[in-house]
Write a structure and sequence with these properties.
5 helices; 18 strands; alpha+beta; about 350 residues
Length: about 350
Amino acid sequence: MTSPSTSDQPSTQPRYATLMLATANVLNLAQAGRHFYSGQDPYSETDFRRKVDWLGERIHALNADVLAVQEIWDEVALRAAVAASGLNYDFVSVPGAENGPGHSGAQGTPRVGIVTRLAVESVESLVNFPPQAVVQVPGLGAHEHFERPPLLVTLKLKHGQPVAVITAHLKSKRPKFLQDSDGRTSEDTDDPAVQALGTLRSLIMRAGEALALRLKVVELLHRTRLPLVVMGDLNDSPHSVTTQLIAATSQTAYDKGARDSALYSAWDVQGEAALRRDVAYSHIHQGYPEVLDQMLVSEEFVATSRHAIGDVRRVEVFNDHLFEGRDRTRSDHGFVRALLRLRMPDD
């Protein structure tokens, strides 16, 4: 009796579903004629069309299954950019920036949103801090809610695997000055001591937001096998205190149990090392490159983890437009894209 041929043997190779994710701070996307920040002129119809067309080209180039966006003033403006991409997306949402009867877009500060072609199981806007994350800010009192609420969505791939995605835009490093009841700055912003105190306020606020986000990450990951991706403009570097508050990656070096709720930089755990660029900055501030726009993944996407159900194949940073000159019809941030894989169940 002859042995079965190789072709008759069942395949032992795992099958993977791919997932393309991207994050983009689009720089004050608002409708034409709409005032958003004091002292800034609204977009003209020409400027608005240029911005929407430019973003449409970038969205088309990214071609992500899930696109996290920041700095959206009007959801309808984002929908216009998505339409300009020529791609089909079933879900576009920017809580707090809705337009229509009773809604006039975001007020005071822009919002974050999500664009996806995947099935959406749930959507949650994270507005308030849990009590243990509330911090006291000098001159302002209790900081107990996000200025720009992160957006948590639970998605489902075609083979049924759920994936959680959080889009975030944390408090900037720009000094936070006190204001009077009419919204006018009530401090001497030319005083170096006042500038230092304003910077401290911003740091404390960002740290409070990072802690609140960390507590949500722990809630989602602790003793679960839910794959999670946190991405967006975190307004600090990957190894900063505030980013590590969210990720807690450093703790895994001496505590294996910490891997259960840690997050890992997609850039650090990607598999196709040959595709890495030496410079991966996403923002240039006063001539210095920075990595502010980040993508963090749970251990389910870390190939070396015994709990891995997928991996990060490659990460790319689209930042060539940062050298095209400062123009608000473009963006002052590079866009980050990552190709992830998830193992499909055996037939």
